[in-house]
Amino acid sequence: MATTPSQSSKPPSNKELPLDDVEGTIGAAVDITTHDEVFGDIKQDGPNYRNVGWMGAIVLLLKSQIGLGVLSLPFALMTLGIVPGILCLVAIAAIMTWSGYCVGVFKLKHPQVYSVVDVGEIMFGRIGREVFAAIYCIFMIFVVGSAIVGASIGLNAVSLHGTCTAVFVAVSAILGFLLASFRTLGKISWLGWVGLVSIVSAILTVTIAVGVQDRPALAPQTGEWDKDFHVIGQPTFLQASSAISSLILAYAGVPTYFSIAAEMRDPRLFNRSMFISNAIITSVYIAIGTVVYYYCGQYVASPALGSAGVLMKRICYGLALPGLYVTVTIYLHLPAKYIFLRFMKGSRHLNSNSFVHWAVWLSCVFACTAIAYIIASAIPVFGSLVGLIGALFGTFFCIGLMGAMWIFDNKDRRQTVKTLGYRALFFMNAFLVLLALYLMISGTWGAVQDIIDSYNADGGQSAWSCKDNSNSV
């Protein structure tokens, strides 16, 4: 059978690779993968880890981004003002697109990479691997924790606080464990479609609802009311830092890109998927954030799904709940997969269906779930938790690390390449490293202060609380 041009050469990460890289294209009769730099020898009777096409990758990339961050966008724009907010959003989108491009290039140069932990080992040796492993797993599990909080808010909203919030948190953690127990991204990529449709339909519904209502749900329902819409906001330094951190979290799926690229049939097509997904994401973010803030003004809720009244809040959260659980699933699956690979690397059980294989895998998923549950119960303030994750981890992994990766791979060219373009790229990436450090410090300070203020506020959220968290702003 004749092969297409993309089938004529082999990617560097495999000895033999099934190059039916476009899902649904003609002619997929090819040999299965026999060896992979990450997953080792892959057998016919074991899990096929390399089974994500470039269109499936788009869905996984979209779902890794569109989730928690978009729910806090209108509140961040309210804090910054519409013009500075949109400018910051576009700037962050450009930086994250460059970071995504760096991921695709770095993966092809270093085919043994599965996660940012492997990047740490390549750049800084064994110490770098262990430090990055700890930070990566903590980051992912914190995202799971915030998604569990979001899901508990949704269950409270739909059920009109049908039971103690701590119960909803526990139920969400258990469901996340069950869904994340699928062993390969290829088998849960269909969940990406479910989650994407779920979240997008929910935010589109709330956007339309706030546009047709006389006033937002949190505004006074009788008499005069002031939208207090700001073209340019007047936040304090800490408020602005926390808002920018929330914008960063809206794109903080970048660390998952390595794992998605590693499980693609042809990693050379990763950047195609990434550019398409980032264009879609940025368009959705600007539209949703602008419209919701314009109609709600100072009365926008965080998460934004609570901005349109009790009935619409129940409808929107009903639509969003599958997407929130998909976020839990993906971000729980990835750190568990990394820990599993560390335990099983070089073992015959890695690519088998043995009892040892399943026992280790389920133990990894359970351990990550338990830690995420504790985080969700201890810090039940959605907006502040989102800001903390974006500042503490998103800046490091999504901005600073990607700039450092480019410098690492191109440092030797400083002696031979004297072009203006190379110098501009070098200084740009050095600036990104410094920018990430600044945003990490300022954003974390702001987010921690927000959490303290919430605990101290009259009627604020507290750890392991039974209080209805769907009414918080």
Automatic annotation (TrEMBL):
Q: Where in the cell is it found?
A: Membrane
Molecular function as annotated in GO: L-amino acid transmembrane transporter activity
- Name the predominant localization: membrane
Entry keyword set? Membrane, Transmembrane, Transmembrane helix
Describe its membrane topology.
Multi-pass membrane protein
Domain Amino acid transporter transmembrane positions: 51-447
Question: Which residue windows does the record flag with biased composition (Polar residues)?
Answer: 1-12
One cellular component GO annotation, for this chain's record? Answer: membrane
Q: Which residues cross the membrane?
A: 52-76, 82-106, 131-153, 159-179, 191-212, 232-254, 275-295, 315-334, 355-379, 385-408, 420-441
Chain segments carrying region Disordered: 1-20
Kindly give the Gene3D superfamilies that the UniProt entry links to this protein: Amino acid/polyamine transporter I
Q: Report the domain of life of the source organism.
A: Eukaryota
Q: Which family does it belong to?
A: Belongs to the amino acid/polyamine transporter 2 family.
Q: What is this protein called?
A: Amino acid transporter transmembrane domain-containing protein
What lineage is this protein's organism placed in? Answer: Eukaryota, Fungi, Dikarya, Basidiomycota, Agaricomycotina
